[in-house]
Design goal:
alpha/beta
């Protein structure tokens, strides 16, 4: 094993609000309107609006991401009858793209990445917008990786083979020399089609919806045991 490749969400970080599409200050900004979140009306509005947050499109930078997130919030505002002011829309947009505290980093990430760094090359392969790169730098882990590939750089999401090929190219790696860690069974299956071995991360506080039939770890300590075993 020469290369360890990690998904980001559910493996390295988690959403503090319990929802990837909710910024940290949602309740403060929406006030009483926040009671509508997770109602059937909200879920339908999200389904009809989330196309603005398509992680499979090419997004050049955070400013372009900001525009897309602003349009998502505007669409949600109309469908939810929140009657947000332009200032409230901008505050929510900024909280999406600029507030790293909307993510939490799992406690075992930093120490284990530093232990693995001397033994393997490390990569990230994530369906994500450009702001995640800034957040990784603010968390102090970006420079621990030899390569970071996100879907909005590729114009595709996992399990599209272009994603896996992009990280292989970035690491100058052969599939058989890699181990890919993701929380989603379908993404691991996509990697396996290219000959990349996989381990599913099923953290107790962030369990995936589906457990696959391959190796599963519940922490980085368990992952290390699987790697060394």
């Amino acid at each position: 094993m020469k290369h360890l490749i990690f998904d980001c969400g559910g493996v390295l970080v988690y959403p503090r609000m319990g929802d990837w599409c909710l910024p940290l200050k949602t309740a403060d900004i929406l006030g009483e309107r926040a009671k509508d979140i997770h109602t059937s009306k909200y879920l339908l509005a999200h389904r009809e609006s989330v196309g603005w947050l398509d992680e499979g499109r090419l997004v050049n930078d955070i400013e372009e991401e900001r525009r897309l997130r602003r349009e998502y919030i505007r669409a949600m505002d109309v469908r939810m009858d929140w009657h947000m002011t332009p200032e409230e829309i901008e505050r929510l947009t900024d909280d999406f793209t600029d507030n790293p505290r909307r993510y939490g980093m799992f406690e075992d990430v930093d120490p284990w990445l530093k232990r693995w760094r001397g033994r393997y090359s490390l990569g990230v392969l994530s369906d994500a917008f450009p702001s995640i790169l800034k957040f990784m730098k603010q968390f102090g882990i970006y420079d621990l990786f030899d390569a970071v590939v996100i879907s909005t750089q590729v114009g595709a999401t996992k399990p599209d083979r272009r994603m896996y090929q992009a990280i292989l190219d970035a690491l100058n790696a052969r599939p058989e020399d890699c181990l890919f860690v993701d929380d989603r069974a379908g993404n691991l299956a996509g990697a396996a089609e290219l000959g990349i071995r996989g381990v599913q991360m099923a953290r107790p506080a962030f369990l995936p919806a589906e457990i696959w039939d391959g190796p599963v770890a519940h922490s980085f300590e368990e992952l290390n045991a699987l790697i060394e075993g």
